[in-house]
Design goal:
The structure is a homodimer. With about 350 residues, chain A is of the alpha/beta class. The first copy, chain A, has 2 domains: about 140 residues, NAD(P)-binding Rossmann-like Domain (Rossmann fold), CATH 3.40.50; about 190 residues, Dihydrodipicolinate Reductase, domain 2, CATH 3.30.360. In chain A, about 30% of the residues lie in helices and about 25% in strands. In chain A, strands 8-9-10-7-11-12-13-14 form an 8-stranded mixed beta sheet, covered by helices on one side. The first copy, chain A, has a 6-stranded parallel beta sheet with strand order 3-2-1-4-5-6, with helices on both faces. The termini of chain A are far apart.
Chain lengths: ~350, ~350
């Protein structure tokens, strides 16, 4: 495959970063079409991101363009389902931003239709395409420090704007941010089904503000996840194994560093070997383009991953399979149920 | 006060470390009496720790020695109450290891008797005497980065030996280890009463193995605490404020470092100023004595704190007041109730 030709649906901040990151890909990518709520807005996007030769459309126009190989959906969360389904109806493979759908029912519809139409589909769990995640995968698979015992992740932002606490739009910190912590745990535990899910936290007007999710896996293994939208907490992930642990000390969802600790003693707690493994991918600091969100230059890995999946004729990603996507939303649905968070889409 | 003369009850590992740490105190301390289950065992302790001139006794003997100014109780957890009460009956002030008592009822008996006898009493929350904790106290009191929003702490050890999972002895990771996380939160929130307590976790044979405790304080402030006795997790504490956060990145219960992060932006997550503040107190690495437990050289701060309290005629510690001690055990009692952990002492 010489070049992968993208159509972009939604011309907001995340779409800007996605198309910018493509310039640093290993494979050849080209944005050939952009669709927004108005063609004027799409034109602004194309100009701003210097997407030479890209055509501008409303949303539907992108799907009608025969030149588009694959569609990237960077729309608002509550618009994902409608446009995934329409893209499949137009015979287009899809990479769709997470959270894919507000609930399992919506996610299942999307996955079912992708299967039915035999079209590639992936939920944009970009973290899993990062070199740091691949490193973790290899370390854990070979049990470099013994079997995994616990996963911890904490992700809280001080989200300005009450539109992020809007159950009517299926928007809440749990689905916006908490989903990253669940995805991290499920990545480490290789998409195993937790035996028990426990969620606690605070809700206001039927929308979660912050909380914890505990996932219990067989054999006394667990994940303890913390998320929130009310203050700027540590954003880190840690994996405890029998003989040591791995820390993703900053921005675990788009990490550039893994720290490996090896247990040397237990009671004294201080006898540990520390090794830092850095993945600076061309140094973010030197990126010539400005990104809207932290480390979004790393979206290049996701774009290249989709390239390889399509080149190899795959219908699913090995980094985020359909089953994986569905299990994660099952977990967040159960967490929401326990927290008492009801989205308007749950009533449909 | 020229010299504070200590009697030590219990000659185990923690008592060894406590008397060793005294050698590095600012004030003058002397161990004049040691009591163990046998005088032979007390003699071994005195010899090993080079406590020249210290007399050896059984437990009662220490309390009868008129030369003893204050008693340090380093016995097993389930023996604390009996010997605190006896010490007070003998007119001795007490510093007693934590957890003070398995439940509120036991702790209340001890505190009530100390008050009744007008004798100094402190539960050994040694963390709170560390320079790093004093630094945090000052920073938070002056709202250097705005009001506190959240506290996080994680403390898990791979505890070998099933005697640490023994509800009959009032021994469980929650009381052994989890109490440090609760104490940290209550220190930051200045002993405020949480409005809501939520505990989740795993229990086997009515004993907790690991869990989380969420404390909700007025005004949308919270502490999320993780504890366990089944694997060697990160042992860190973090305090999130409106404009930044403080990390105690290693061994938050006996810390030598605080890292201060200042928020510079929210969405990009990466614009933070970092300042490390180290409290190396004479470099642990160069300590001439070997300690049994991590950073136990820092027990010196607690010994000096007790010296100052007694010198100044105080009956309570400002670092761990009676009310503070009682509130912490109320919280762990409620957490145990939710987890379904019942100690034999609860049935008395």
């Amino acid at each position: 495959m010489a070049e992968l030709k993208w159509g972009v649906l939604g011309c907001g901040l995340i779409s800007e970063d996605f198309v910018r990151a493509m310039r640093q890909c290993q494979h050849k990518h080209k944005v050939v079409a952009a669709g927004a709520s108005s063609t004027q807005r799409a034109q602004q996007f194309v100009d701003k991101c210097e997407l030479t030769g890209a055509k501008v459309y409303d949303y539907e126009g992108v799907l009608n363009d025969p030149n588009v190989d694959v569609v990237y959906i960077g729309l608002m969360n509550h618009q994902h389902k409608e446009w995934c389904l329409k893209a499949f109806d137009h015979g287009k493979p899809v990479l769709c931003e997470k959270p894919l759908a507000p609930n399992y029912k919506g996610a299942k519809e999307i996955v079912d239709k992708a299967k039915e139409k035999k079209l590639f589909f992936m939920e944009a769990f970009w973290s899993r395409c990062f070199p740091a995640y691949k490193f973790l995968r290899e370390e854990i698979d070979k049990q470099a420090m013994g079997p995994v015992k616990s996963v911890f992740a904490n992700f809280g932002l001080d989200i300005l704007g009450e539109n992020r606490f809007n159950a009517d739009l299926g928007a809440s910190p749990l689905n916006d941010i908490g989903v990253y912590t669940v995805s991290f745990a499920q990545w480490i535990f290789r998409n195993e089904k937790p035996e028990k899910i426990t969620a606690t936290g605070k809700t206001v007007n039927q929308c979660d503000r912050w909380g914890t999710i505990t996932l219990e896996y067989s054999g006394d293994r667990k994940a303890i996840l913390i998320f929130g939208g009310v203050d700027f907490t540590p954003i880190d992930g840690r994996v405890t194994c029998e003989r040591g642990r791995y820390d993703l000390p900053e921005n675990f969802y788009c990490p550039t560093r893994v720290i490996r600790y090896e247990n040397k003693g237990v009671i004294r707690c201080n006898q540990r070997k520390i090794e830092k493994v850095d993945f600076n991918f061309d140094n973010f600091e030197n990126d010539k383009v400005e990104y809207n969100f932290m480390n979004d230059s790393g979206l290049r890995y996701e774009a290249d991953h989709v390239y390889e999946c399509l080149r190899d004729g795959k219908l699913e990603s090995s980094n985020a399979s359909h089953e994986d996507t569905l299990r994660i939303v099952q977990i967040t649905d159960e967490a929401r149920r326990q927290l008492g968070v009801v989205y308007s889409q749950d009533k449909e």
